[in-house]
């Protein structure tokens, strides 16, 4: 009997290892990626750490899966020129460092120039994030974390900078409720730059976030593009590796799509259905 139990545990472990490790990518331009973009033109140079892999897929704007390649947000952040972001470098680093990960599924959701207030529950950005997160698990897989890099736009006024912490925490609380994932792991990035004078104030809020299962990776000091706002391609690769390292230090308990389907009416799915019917 004991041998049978151990066999079942091994089978379960092997099944989990074969699942898609779903990672949500959200925030503004430094998450959607501006590495290699100068004067609204992307140089097309893809670092080795960000090149496509058959083990990494991405969710398209049409909610279908395809092989991931830069720019990841090309069909999401459509009003801007996208370049290299941290997502693919994160995924490749994760695959390299953790042999139990067989496939990483990236869900791009970031939109450049957005304020944290634009991600409030019920907003277009929030609804799109929920819709894409729910769609990602429909074919199987596990949401492992959300990577969040945003706040540059909130450095422009003192009011926004002072309200940042509360708005961010409310955003995470609401997102966890609507995805029926009360401990959704979130790895946020503390700003390397900003479009206004209150960078320190927003960074203080990010580094002082007190929610459980929320960790912070500090981008301060990473190389910037000539515009002084966006990370260079090399810096995005470095950030992706930093995010992977932080993720592997936490390894929280995930929510499986099969478990989600067993929850009462799956609130996230209900919200998804209401959104797409609009």
Please supply descriptive tags for the structure shown above.
single chain; alpha/beta; two-stranded antiparallel ribbon; 9 helices; disordered N terminus; disordered C terminus
Question: How much helix is in the residues?
Answer: 25-40%
Total helices: the number is 9
Can you write the helix and strand succession as a string? HEHEEEEHEHEHEHEHEHH
Structural class: alpha/beta
Radius of gyration: 18 Å
Parts with pLDDT < 50 across at least 5 consecutive residues: 1-17, 252-278
End-to-end separation in angstroms reads 54 Å
Q: Strand fraction band?
A: 15-25%
* Average residue pLDDT: 87
Report the principal-axis shape: globular
Largest sheet: 8 strands, mixed
Number of strands: 10
Walk me through what this model shows.
The chain has 9 helices and 10 strands. The protein has helices at 2-17, 29-32, 87-97, 124-137, 158-178, 199-207, 233-250, 257-261, 267-276, and strands at 20-27, 37-38, 41-42, 56-59, 65-67, 103-108, 142-149, 186-190, 214-218, 255-256. α3 packs across α7. Strands 1, 4, 5, 6, 7, 8, 9 and 10 form an 8-stranded mixed sheet that branches. It is an alpha/beta fold and 278 residues long.
What is the gist of this entry?
The protein has 278 residues and is α/β, with parallel strands linked by helices.
What topology does this entry show?
Blueprint: H1 2-17, E1 20-27, H2 29-32, E2 37-38, E3 41-42, E4 56-59, E5 65-67, H3 87-97, E6 103-108, H4 124-137, E7 142-149, H5 158-178, E8 186-190, H6 199-207, E9 214-218, H7 233-250, E10 255-256, H8 257-261, H9 267-276
Parallel strand pairs: 1-6, 1-7, 4-6, 7-8, 8-9
Antiparallel strand pairs: 2-3, 4-5, 7-10
Helix pairs in contact: 3-7, 4-9, 5-6
